Amino acid sequence: MKTSQFEAVKVAIKQDKTGYVLTLSVHPDEIPDEIMRDFVGARYQVVMVRINGEEKPMDRDRDLPHDLVQLAGILCNDPRFHVWLVSLGCIHQATSKEATEWMRSELGVVSRTELKTNPAASQILLNINEEFKTWKRNG
Q: Is the pTM value of this prediction over 0.70?
């Protein structure tokens, strides 16, 4: 069985009635000819590995600290995270503003960028994220 390998960049994701539609940008020199010749609607089994800053496969468990600033922002803007915080009594209104204020207080930081240099706050954020993921799975 021949496999196709190429690098792509995620440029969009949306949802329709059948599921999620992931849009990838592939450089013209990277896209395999066989994929170009396949008909629209062809099915594929897909295996993807995110590439880290060193152009190597990302180990999400090990490389996550590089994304903690982004993770904090994503959580604070996630309506499900707001609902979770309200259910715990951490915030009163399910808003990004309240979630952000709570997060800064909980982490003991003034700005999310401090996560780059504050290992204690980083660990607290990882713990919060794990608790939230468990709640989502069970919820």
A: no
Q: Give the 3-state secondary structure of residue 126.
A: helix
- Cα 139 from Cα 135, distance rounded (Å): 6
Q: Sort 1 into a burial class: Cβ within 10 Å, 0-12 / 13-18 / 19+.
A: exposed
Alpha helices in 1-139 (DSSP H): 33-37, 60-63, 68-76, 79-88, 96-107, 119-138
At 44, the amino acid letter reads: Y
The DSSP symbol for 38 reads S
Beta bridge partners of 20: 15
Q: Structural domain boundaries of the chain?
A: 1-48, 60-138
Q: How many residues does the chain have?
A: 139
Which positions ≥6 away from 9 have C-beta within 8 Å?
A: 24, 25
- The model's pLDDT over 108-138, given as tens digits with 9 standing for 90+, comes to 999 988 998 898 999 999 999 989 989 988 8
